[in-house]
Write a structure and sequence with these properties.
966 residues; Chondroitinase Ac, Chain A, domain 3; Methylamine Dehydrogenase, Chain H; 3 domains; 5-stranded antiparallel beta sheet; alpha+beta
């Protein structure tokens, strides 16, 4: 991790104050028409999700039937190839493809539209963006993820302000908070299941050099903790929480390079985190292990490990995108690109059990929720909007606490009539619905460049991929009854807390949007007034508390001021973005935070703070943030400076004690898993190896003091050692087979090796025998050896070497026969015995030649293929002639000329029978004409024969991969 510089805090605060003044002036002027072009104002949808909490919950009246929909902007008609939009005031910002085609779009333009679908202005980007680029609004700026960096623009003028350093792929949600943005990058890949490398980073949004449009900013901090792919962080109070491909959830300081806590989720996170303020829990889901966690936060930003909840196996599928939560329910899409597919799940937030599933909806969408139709009478019914990945169909269904089955509201099909016009959409859609304050619904199409089903009856080319369509709800205007319903769902003024302020302000805004005559129909308007007064009072109180704590911070910061700085930071961080601007002295707080952590990072400051830690035996979970903060400072030192920290052992002991306390929370789960394991005698390699090793690995990761307390640790050790023993025995057999046996060259010389391996195999239990990978080679070898002992090379041998350049040789007294795999044309059993000298017709042969060397094969007829036969024939070296003896006629047929060297002759033959080698035939035996010697069989095929052999060879090549492992 590394830390950059931050400057110009006062200038940033002054700019923010001007923005607040402009916003107040606009709000005071009354409701702005969607048709008016105005300067960027309050963001209704500021990032990939709606806000820095990654919520996707709106109060606008979104369409609830096809009949009340019309299209403001139809991307297929406009060929508007785009990426996820954001809504700021009366404007829509999005990245569009300004070149290329719908098949190969090039995203390199930032465009601004009004909310009637009219393009107002655009500007070229510094570079290209990827297919999943995210943009974000904050501090009067638009932040765009290019393929390898971020570019910032002035939201009003679209003037480029700055760039970040070039990195790898940037595919994450950008989170904005109080003058800073947070996002991550990845080393790339195709988005598959494997983890990637990368980092999560923080940047100041300030334009430090207004004279340049392409200045490259330094990071405030950079957490090199693995890749971040489709992941999004969330700000809660004075902490940023994020998780990515490392599978670790981090609690990090907003502006300093300090990790307060880390929680191992056990798998990649490729989706947004969200924060549920009603339960004070983070909600995070994993990709491959398909688990959802809800994790309670402590006041100091650490995780309450004792109250962590997670879904049971199989409750959800893998998540890539994000989940949504509202009113005690969690909406979990699964499937889509590179995720373990399952149906869309609706969970009870308390039990994390499935209330029901939306069958057929495999989605990568972050579910969009509208509360506009909720009332006390309908049990706070909300409408949920999601897109099916494969088909591109938009699903809309209703939900309320206690509901146990899917209730469809409507489906937005891919070929339907909407507002009198034909609407068509494409499949393979990884996008999410967006909404604006006027009830308009924004939908990006899928990646297909065709309509319908590929090569199906409805298949049609020419579609634009990633086409943006904006649907208007013609019934989106709020009525007095709608506002009354919204107010009825709010808490009473006495029970209301500051965390309710967003909902109260939303209701107030809807009320103020009514005509005066309609406002009189809102029977609970007085309750709304009481609530807004309550919010004003709570805001003033929190602002005053923050200012009071800031006032306690002296000009010259010392370590003794840490409590004051932390308290002020906590109070300031709990305020809404617009309320933070009300805090006088917030620049003092920012400077104090930086000064404090610079001081704590010094060696003297570090030693002083470590000395203030409790003794290791007294360390509790409440000390985690302090210990981890000091640990981060210690780790940031050079090796030489670490040696100067004289009480580092005290810090190490405190860190060790915290691990023990954390692991103690995990112990019941480990003990439960140990109890579920079989005994050492009952365990089998086939069924239990993976589970035993997983539990043992989890146990081994525990602190030694916690291990000593584990119930069943003796059982675990025994079953683990048993599994290791079974595995060693199985692996030894496989290793022997692999190293000692050649399946393509089994001979009688392998008898003892095969017998030894078979004996080891026989000693295994049946459950372990099933785990031996290569024992089929032993079974084949046993069959081959048994056949060889009977004088037969079995057809299996020739099958194994066929179409390979491998030789197989068998020997007898005075001879050897060798077959090469490339010469095998007809695998079959081959009797390899030979008779040398005293053949059946040796007496007759001696009459045909002077001093002949006669021999015969036990094999009659054709060989499996051409063979090289080496014979010990004796006699002088030189040329001789090989003849076949034809018993029926008593004559000799010349086969080939052979050379004798060192008393040995090498022949090539393709069929068995009786042969002899001689210098020449006797005069009486010599034929009357050349044809009298018959047709020689020299192993040279005729042209027709060659074609047949080639055809057989081609057929055999298709099967070659199925034979042998080497």
């Amino acid at each position: 991790m590394e830390k950059g510089n931050r400057t110009g805090i006062r200038r940033r605060l002054l700019a923010a104050g001007l923005t607040l003044a402009m916003l107040a002036a606009m709000l005071g002027a009354g409701t702005v028409s969607a048709k008016e072009e105005t300067a960027p104002a309050e963001a209704y949808w500021s990032s990939f999700a709606r806000d820095s909490g990654n919520a996707a919950v709106v109060d606008s009246k979104l369409p609830a039937s096809l009949d009340e929909m019309e299209m403001i902007l139809y991307g297929q008609e406009e060929n508007l190839v785009s990426q996820d939009p954001i809504i700021v005031g009366e404007r829509m910002y999005l990245v569009v493809a300004s070149a290329g085609s719908s098949r190969r779009p090039v995203f390199d333009t930032l465009a601004v539209y009004d909310l009637e679908g009219n393009r107002l202005k655009e500007t070229k980007l510094y570079g290209r963006t990827g297919y999943f680029s995210r943009i974000c609004y904050g501090d009067g700026k638009i932040f765009v993820l290019l393929s390898d960096r971020i570019q910032a623009f002035d939201a009003e003028t679209l003037e480029s302000l700055w760039l970040t350093p070039a990195e790898n792929q940037m595919l994450c949600t950008i989170t904005y908070n109080d003058g800073y943005i947070y996002t991550g990058y990845t080393s790339g890949g195709s988005g598959g299941t494997g983890a990637t490398e990368g980092a999560y980073v923080c940047l100041s949004t300030e334009d430090e050099d207004p004279s340049k449009t392409d200045e490259v900013k330094d990071y405030v901090w950079k957490s090199e903790t693995g890749g971040y792919y489709w992941a999004g962080g969330v700000v809660v109070g004075s902490r940023i929480y994020f998780a990515g491909d490392s599978g670790v959830l981090y609690s990090h300081h907003l502006t300093e390079d300090i990790v307060y806590d880390a929680y191992d989720l056990g798998d990649l996170v490729r989706s947004n985190l969200i924060y549920d303020a009603t339960t004070n829990r983070l909600i995070v889901a994993t990709k491959n292990t398909a688990q959802l966690f809800t994790i309670e936060l402590n006041r100091d930003g650490t995780f309450n490990r004792q109250t962590v909840r997670r879904t049971a196996e199989g409750v959800i599928g893998g998540v890539t995108g994000g989940v949504s939560a509202y009113n005690g329910r969690i909406y979990v899409p699964s499937g889509g690109m590179h995720a373990l597919s399952s149906s869309f799940a609706v969970l009870d937030a308390e039990t994390l059990e499935a209330a029901y599933y939306v069958e057929g909806l495999s989605s990568q969408s972050v579910p969009l929720i509208t509360t506009a139709y909720a009332s006390a009478e309908n049990s706070r019914t909300v409408y949920v909007y999601a897109i099916d990945y494969v088909s591109g169909v938009g699903y809309v269904f209703e939900d309320q606490p206690g509901q146990t089955e899917y209730k469809e509201v409507m489906k937005i099909g891919t070929d339907v009539e909407i507002g009198g016009k034909r609407y068509r959409a494409t499949g393979y859609n990884s996008s999410s619905f967006k909404a604006d304050q006027y009830g308009n619904l924004y939908m990006i199409g899928g990646s297909n460049t065709y309509f319908g089903t590929y090569n199906g009856a409805d298949y049609e080319t020419g579609a634009a991929s990633y086409a943006l369509t904006v649907f208007r709800n013609v019934n989106a205007e709020f009525t007095a009854q709608d506002v009354e319903n919204a107010i009825s769902l709010l808490p009473g003024a006495q029970e209301a807390e500051y965390t309710d302020k967003k909902a109260v302000l939303a209701a107030e805004k809807r009320y103020e949007g009514l005509a005066p005559a309609e406002q009189t129909k809102v029977s609970n308007a007085a309750a709304l007034t009481a609530l807004t007064d309550r919010m004003d009072a709570l805001t003033a109180s929190l602002v005053a508390q923050a200012e009071a704590e800031i006032a306690k911070i002296p000009a010259d910061i010392t370590l003794a001021d840490e409590a004051a700085v932390e308290t002020a930071s906590f109070l300031y961080g709990s305020l809404l973005e617009e309320d933070k601007r009300l805090v006088a002295g917030r620049e003092t707080l920012a400077a104090a935070v930086e000064a404090l952590y610079d001081l704590k990072g010094s060696i003297d400051g570090l030693i002083e703070n470590i000395a203030l830690l409790p003794d290791a035996a007294e360390v509790t979970a409440q000390d985690k943030a302090a210990v981890n903060e000091l640990w981060a400072a210690f780790q940031a030192l050079s090796e030489a400076d670490r040696e100067r920290v004289t009480n580092a052992d005290r810090l190490l002991a405190a860190k060790d004690k915290l691990q023990e306390l954390d692991d103690l929370v995990l112990l019941p789960s480990v003990e439960e898993k140990i109890a579920a394991l079989p005994s050492a005698a009952q365990a089998t390699l086939l069924e239990d190896e993976e589970a035993v090793k997983a539990v043992y690995e989890e146990f081994a990761a525990l602190h030694a003091n916690v291990q000593a307390q584990a119930a069943g640790r003796e059982k675990l050790e025994a079953v683990y050692q048993a599994i290791l023993g079974y595995r060693a025995a199985v692996d030894e057999i496989d290793r022997l087979i692999w190293n000692e046996l050649d399946p393509q060259n089994i001979t009688l010389a392998d008898r003892e090796t095969v017998a030894a391996i078979a004996a080891k195999y026989a000693a295994l239990r049946d459950s372990e025998k099933a785990c031996v990978q290569y024992y089929d080679d032993v079974i084949d070898a046993q069959a081959i050896i048994a056949s060889l002992e009977k004088g037969v090379i079995p057809a299996l041998v020739f099958d194994n070497i066929r179409d390979t350049d491998r030789d197989y040789t068998v020997s007898g007294e005075g001879y050897s026969i060798t077959f090469n795999g490339l010469e095998i044309v007809r695998p079959a059993d081959f009797r390899y015995g030979m008779t040398l000298g005293d053949t059946a017709n040796s007496a007759a042969i001696e009459k045909l030649a002077e001093d002949p060397f006669a021999f015969s094969f036990d094999q009659s007829g054709a060989f499996p293929g051409r063979a090289a036969v080496e014979l010990s024939v004796g006699g002088p070296d030189g040329q001789r002639v090989l003849y076949r003896y034809v018993a029926d006629s008593g004559r000799a047929e010349k086969v080939q000329t052979v050379t004798v060297a060192g008393g040995k002759a090498l022949l090539t033959l393709e069929e068995g029978g009786e042969y002899f080698i001689a210098v020449t035939l006797t005069t009486e035996a010599a034929p009357d004409s050349p044809s009298g010697e018959g047709v020689p069989s020299t192993g040279e095929a005729t042209a027709a024969g060659g074609m047949i052999l080639l055809a057989l060879g081609a057929l055999a090549a298709l099967l070659a991969a199925k034979r042998g492992r080497r």
